[in-house]
Each structure stands twice: as structure tokens, then as C-alpha cells.
Amino acid sequence: MFQIRIHGRGGQGVVTGAEMLSIAAFEQGRHAQAFPSFGSERTGAPVVAFCRIAEREIRLREPVMAPDALIIQDPTLLHQVDVFQGLKPEGYVLINSARSFDELGVGEFVRRFRRERLCNVPAGEIAKAHLGRPLPNAALLGGFAAISGLITLEAVGKAIRDKFTGKVAEANIAAAAEAYDYVRKEMRELAHAQAD
């Protein structure tokens, strides 16, 4: 079973992101579940959502305490909430930011993880260019597909169309595709740098 924890703030589409991730996994013939954990349910308050993906039926219902992957929709949470709590040593980290891990103040911490499984992507900026609003969730799903290989970009597109229609769906799909390409390029550049 692969477990993902998504951190963000109320109003950023954290719960919708988890739902679309589970739909994408389901589109690929896997079992999946998504559910939120709310504290204070107001816009701007920290929100966590969880997604589990497995090859067989999922019976667990508790929050994800030891995630295989983290998706951080709001980098301001990096120093307000222990977003990295329980992350497995071989885990994936995807942060919505154009800034480096060092610039975000977590460079020293992430050095203990596998570098090829860590990436920052300016998902909010990408979303704003396509949607007119900096809602990063669909773009981050594209980035997650690229870094993890767990879901395909095509499955992400189907999940987005399951949740949205018309221009909104197409704009989100375009944002996901751009973030996917961005992360793939980052991963290629890292592989070249490590080979040199």
C-alpha cells in the first residue's frame, strides 16, 4: 500500500486534490481511498488530507502517520506544522514552490532523503497562468505523477474531468501537464548532475 499525505490551507483544494489522486489511481485499476482531517474549518487554516493506493481492498481508516509521499500545497506550513513527521526514508516530497529547499529553510533536513524523490514545482504560478487563480492541486497531481510514476498523466486528466467540466477542467489538465513536464525536466537535470 502506498500512502500520501497532503498539507495545505483551507480554500486551496487540498481535499479535492486527495479525491482526484484517488480517482486517478482507480482509473488505473487500483483500490484507493481519500479523506480529509480538519481542525479549524476556515479559509487559510492548515488542512491535511490523506490518500491510500493499493492493489487490493483497503480496510484502514485512520490518518496516514507514516507517509510514502508528501505533497505540500502551501510552503508557509513548512515552519508552522511538522509536515515531514513520519515520512519514510525512501519517501517522496513535492512542494508547491519555485524556491529551492535551501531557500525554503529545509535544505539541511531533506538531505537525509533520496534527492531524486524530492522536487519543488511552482504549481500555484502554473495554475494562475492557466486558471487565473493560484489553486495548485491539479498542477501538483501532474507533478506527483512525474516524480513518483505511481499514476499516469492520462489518469490525472481523467480524474480532473471527473471532478470538473468545460474550461475549468481543461485549464486544470493543462496546468497538470505543465507541472508534469516541469518535474520531469527537473528530474532529468538532477540525473545528469549526479552522473557528472
What does this structure look like?
This protein has helices at 14-27, 107-110, 123-131, 137-148, 153-163, 166-195; strands spanning 2-9, 31-38, 46-54, 69-72, 92-96, 118-121. The chain has 196 residues and is an alpha/beta fold. The protein has one domain: Pyruvate-ferredoxin oxidoreductase, PFOR, domain III (Pyruvate-ferredoxin Oxidoreductase, domain 3, 3-Layer(aba) Sandwich), CATH 3.40.920. Helix 3 (123-131) crosses helix 4 and helix 5 packs antiparallel against helix 6 (166-195). It is globular and about 45 Å long.
Summary of the model, kept short:
The protein has helices spanning 14-27, 107-110, 123-131, 137-148, 153-163, 166-195, and strands spanning 2-9, 31-38, 46-54, 69-72, 92-96, 118-121.
Query: CATH class, please?
Result: Alpha Beta
Kindly give the count of domains.
1
**Uncertain regions spanning at least 5 consecutive residues:** none
Name given to the CATH architecture: 3-Layer(aba) Sandwich
What is the structural class?
alpha/beta
User: What level of helicity do the residues show?
Assistant: 40-55%
Shape: globular
